[in-house]
């Protein structure tokens, strides 16, 4: 039996940590723990474990030069969104952007402003760009 390949996509908890890093910039494990613990009880060593896994998955980088290690997101929020949407579109919607967008738009009412922005984006014809 072959070993299961390691997942490189972030879990929900990892995405929560990435959101903190994108919002606040570089953070120590303590900083991240404080934010997460306000939302739901989270043990400090759980945050440390998740950050180690995220390092292995190359989702974050760590600066070891200070006494407290400082973590930062390896990818910008936009690059991660692009990567996740591309994967989701390929695996769930057979690569069809039209099916993905149609499903997303059917989930809730779309404002006139958002419809206009979508129309403008379609006119620009911006295609998919692979993140670094």
Summary?
The protein has 132 residues and is mainly alpha-helical.
What does this entry look like structurally?
- This protein is mainly alpha-helical.
- The protein is globular, with a radius of gyration of 18 Å.
- The protein has a 3-stranded antiparallel β-sheet with strand order 1-3-2.
- It has 6 helices and 3 strands.
- Helices cover 58% and strands 8% of the residues.
- It has helices at 12-24, 29-39, 44-56, 77-92, 97-107, 112-124; strands at 27-28, 60-63, 70-73.
- The model has no long low-confidence stretch (mean pLDDT 88).
- Helix 2 (29-39) crosses helix 3 (44-56).
Q: What portion of residues is helical?
A: 55-70%
Spatial gap, N to C terminus: 33 Å
Q: Could you describe the largest sheet, including whether it forms a barrel?
A: 3 strands, antiparallel
Given helix and strand content, the structural type is: mainly alpha
- Element pattern in H and E: HEHHEEHHH
Overall geometric form: globular
Instruction: Summarize model confidence as the mean pLDDT.
Output: 88
- Would you report the number of β strands? 3
Tell me the β content: 5-15%
């Amino acid at each position: 039996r072959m070993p299961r390949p390691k997942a490189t996509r972030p879990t929900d908890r990892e995405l929560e940590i990435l959101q903190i890093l994108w919002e606040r910039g570089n953070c120590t494990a303590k900083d991240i723990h404080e934010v997460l613990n306000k939302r739901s009880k989270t043990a400090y060593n759980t945050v440390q474990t998740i950050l180690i896994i995220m390092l292995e998955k190359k989702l974050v980088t760590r600066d070891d030069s200070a006494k407290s290690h400082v973590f930062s997101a390896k990818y910008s929020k936009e690059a991660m969104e692009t990567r996740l949407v591309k994967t989701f579109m390929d695996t769930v919607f057979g690569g069809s952007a039209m099916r993905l967008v149609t499903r997303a738009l059917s989930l809730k009412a779309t404002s006139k402003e958002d419809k206009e922005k979508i129309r403008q984006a379609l006119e620009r014809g911006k295609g998919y760009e692979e993140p670094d």
